[in-house]
Amino acid sequence: MTFSTLQKIVLASGNPGKIREIQAILAEHPIVPQSEFNVVDVEETGATFVENAILKARNAALHCQLPAIADDSGLVVDALNGAPGVISARYAGVGASDRDNVDKLLRELDGVPDELRTARFICVMVFMEHAYDPCPVIAQGVWEGRILDHAVGENGFGYDPVFWVPEQQCASAQLPAAVKNALSHRGQALKRLTALIKEREAA
Amino acid sequence: MTFSTLQKIVLASGNPGKIREIQAILAEHPIVPQSEFNVVDVEETGATFVENAILKARNAALHCQLPAIADDSGLVVDALNGAPGVISARYAGVGASDRDNVDKLLRELDGVPDELRTARFICVMVFMEHAYDPCPVIAQGVWEGRILDHAVGENGFGYDPVFWVPEQQCASAQLPAAVKNALSHRGQALKRLTALIKEREAA
Asked: Cα(B85)–Cα(B76) distance, rounded to whole angstroms?
């Protein structure tokens, strides 16, 4: 590991919630959003979460000349053979709203009985020491649930209103942010990634 | 997990040693080499080990219509800022022999003192349930060592004659195959991958 503590890390995301969460765990590294460097988003052409996360991290590392963290995530529904998967954010088309995507998902699952509506949120996070790092640190989080037949709750975003969380007996959109962050695919991936980065630093 | 035990898995490699090793651990799945299906090798255009492993697994899964396992591996040398990395097998040029690659590595490290010749073999193995699997199972193995200043030993292949293994006090090419397989980056990745595949099957 050639990068040291106090070295800045760029985050290939403009989401202030994500930045705060990562900063809290990786306290010894200042985390800066790529927007501070006017980085233009890269096209997510990968067919897997990990390929898309690497594309985003590489783009940020290249433009900012800093180590970079990126994530890619989505919803995988068994009855739809894994859809919407890597295109979760644009399931109903490019520029689709969360509502459009949820509506399409509910239509596709119309008539599918409860026990066959199993699904999971998946998040893959990567850390690249530089744009040409051949061996990114990779961490994955999986959050198992089931797709409801109508939307409930006001929190979160994306598919949260139709994602039933069995261990909480409510939809993801009914969970307070702190509870969701502790359980969610993204929270799990982040905890694993930061532990793996610290291992790599210590090596 | 929609694939069941007894389901064949194709291996994106023609190496009989790798096939035997994987078959021994994943006993409930017949492992078949992609050569049985006349699969044409895909070009390794990735800049990371995991991207190349995914390219190979996707290619095999697509052509064989079966779940697929692939790996990509290489040598990462600190004093060379990570080279030869993903181009380890063609470090001295396309079609280079093991000897050409080793000679180039020794030239590049000429004069670098022992304590700065740290290096590691890295292997990333992936399992894809089908060619469009958005979330491959990914396992990594790392084998730490140091680059010698001359080649020794007759076993193994690639950079084994110049890779000093501290815990065995000899070069990788001086280890019997069984010892190497138990310690090596590839052995570690394979053990992790098979454990993760079994977890996914059980889920």
From this structure: 5
pLDDT in tens, A119-135: 999 999 999 999 999 99
Q: B78 and A2: CB-CB below 8 Å? A: yes
Chain A residues whose beta carbon lies within 8 Å of the beta carbon of residue B2: 78
Q: Can you tell me which residue has the tokens 């078959």?
A: B23
The CA distance from B49 to the nearest CA of chain A, in Å, is 6
Q: Does the CA dihedral A62-A64-A69-A73 come out positive or negative?
A: negative
* A135 contacts B122? CB cut-off 8 A: yes
Q: Which positions of chain B have pLDDT values less than 70?
A: 1-5
- Provide the pLDDT confidence category of residue A6 given band limits of 50, 70 and 90: confident
Question: What is the SS3 assignment for chain A?
Answer: CCCCCCCCEEECCCCHHHHHHHHHHCCCCCEEEHHHHCCCCCCCCCCCHHHHHHHHHHHHHHHHCCCEEEEEEEEEEHHHCCCEHHHHHHCCCCCCCHHHHHHHHHHHCCCCCHHHCEEEEEEEEEEECCCCCCCCEEEEEEEEEEECCCCCCCCCCCCHHHEEEHHHCEEHHHCCHHHHHHHCHHHHHHHHHHHHHHHHHHC
Query: Are the Cβ atoms of A54 and B50 closer than 8 angstroms?
Result: yes
- Of these residues, A72, A98, A103, A133, which one is catalytic? A72
Could you give all domains of chain A from N- to C-terminal order, each with its CATH number? 9-202 (3.90.950.10)
Pick from A93, A82, A101: nearest CA to A162: A101
Tell me the pTM. Answer: 0.90
Nearest in space to B1 (alpha carbons), one of B92, B100, B175, B133:
B133
- Residue B45 contacts residue B75 (beta carbons within 8 Å): no
Chain A interface, Cβ < 8 Å to B: 2, 47-51, 54, 58, 74, 76, 78, 82, 85-86, 122, 124, 132-136, 138, 140
- pLDDT given at position B25: 78
Which helix (H) or strand (E) is B179 found in, with range? helix B177-183
Torsion (CA) A108, A110, A113, A116 in degrees, nearest 10: 0
